[in-house]
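re: that chain from earlier
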Amino acid sequence: MAARGNRSSRRTMTLATTTREAVRLCTLAERESVARQLRRVLARSVDWDGFWEIAAYQEVLPLVARTLLDDNLAGMIPESCVRDARTLLDQTTFVNLSLDAELRRVCRTLHCRDVPVVPLKGTHLARRLYGSVGLRRAGDIDVLVPEGTLEIARGALRELGYSPATSVADGDADHSFHGLPYVRPGLVFPFVVELHWKLSDPRYVSIDYPRLWDRIHHIGGDARRRGLPGEDLLLFLALHRFKHDNGSLRLLADVDRLVRRERSTFDWTYVVAEAKRWGAAGALYFALLQAQSLLQTPLPEAILADLAPARWRRWLVEVLAGSGSPLRATPPSSARSNRCRLAYCLMLTPLSRTVDAYARFLFPAPRGVQSGIWGDATVKGRRLLGGIARTGVVLASSVVDR
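^ sequence. v structure.
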């Protein structure tokens, strides 16, 4: 009985391993070798329900679907999966074409009002990094404008039929680097625009925005299509890798495609120096390390050594969110979210930023406590105990998950 149970457990683990490996292979950029490797994996068993679940959680469905339709895999993919892949690509392309047209409309309107505007993420990255609007799912329309032009930009959005969202997530009303989303009804779905005046939380990242805008203006070309310079885009993507507990494989794929497509023009000396100025060297180090480990991203030989944080930080981040974490079975959402937050804290420099971010993310003030002497004491006590408990759960789940 015990032997049969052990064999069953081993088969389950093997099935999960091959399923995760199939998802990883489907996101690789080198398509010529992917089919050959994938055929070997598909010769074994794959849990197709689990396959789609992982791909959806990691937000790489279009990349996965495109790979499954490769002629070299004909006959090895269940017909139902082939149909699902075609439908998914068609739907993604339809939605993204609508979003891309609206992005252009918004950028054109802002440009006509002399508001410098840079598209962030979304369909802009789909075209720039993947060469196709349908290979990266988009949602909101995110654009960066100078902080001094915000009122003009908001007025332009209102003229286009947008109005501030009335129902928003916690923190969006007083966000540190973008305002309330603006929403406009569409024929099929509503369009949502977020005006960013910063790229990340200024409490934890130090970005010289006049310097950044000067670099943007020197790129030249059509202002409506222009994005961040490649080096700055790489830093921006790296900062977002550990801010989300889902979609981390898609964010690593973004880093991978950017390096592959634009590395020949990169000033890597600038990348390292600017990462340290921003306080983002740790985030960039781990993003590049994981992209190289999972997606075989080609990197300059010395880049990781130049960016490497202290050994204790590297060890803790590896425990919390190491290279294999995007493809592991997901723990409860609160634990996974807090693991990402704690890993992000450990990437921040100097140490004072790490401590401040740790206190903010894992020791939030409890709600619903009355004011007064006893109320204040209760808040402090519950905040301390809650933070200690969260930290314990995070560390325990990280060890178990490994």
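Residues 79-112 form the longest helix (34 residues).
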